[in-house]
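Inverse folding, one chain.
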């Protein structure tokens, strides 16, 4: 069952159910010029996570999640930080299904986040 779920996820046949809707993130207006690249990098991270999961590179998943956890918090992306923390824990446990679920949630969050500059 686990392999089927992961394979379906990697093919894009799985999406997280985000019943909470879109997320609003308040970011300091002084960071406005940095956010587009930050978001682009997080988008690339999704592809990297999927490739790492496909290849059972749990240590690399854990390392990338740890980096995202730090940078997300620095910019005020609390949910992103929370998801990265959970991905990191799941990678430590080698829990493929949970990692796939969390990557899908991360991707959905990234696609729905609304950034408000204050």
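Residues assigned per position:
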């Amino acid at each position: 069952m686990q392999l089927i779920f992961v394979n379906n996820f990697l093919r894009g046949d799985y999406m997280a159910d985000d019943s909470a809707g879109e997320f609003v993130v308040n970011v300091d207006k002084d960071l406005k010029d940095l956010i587009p690249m930050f978001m682009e990098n997080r988008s690339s991270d999704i592809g990297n996570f999927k490739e790492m999961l496909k290849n059972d590179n749990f240590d690399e998943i854990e390392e990338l999640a740890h980096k995202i956890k730090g940078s997300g918090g620095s910019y005020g992306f609390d949910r992103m930080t929370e998801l990265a923390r959970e991905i990191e824990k799941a990678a430590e446990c080698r829990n493929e299904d949970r990692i796939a679920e969390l990557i899908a949630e991360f991707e959905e969050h990234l696609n729905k986040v609304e950034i408000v500059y204050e």
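DSSP finds five helices and two strands in the chain. Confidence is low (pLDDT under 50) at residues 1-9, 11-21.
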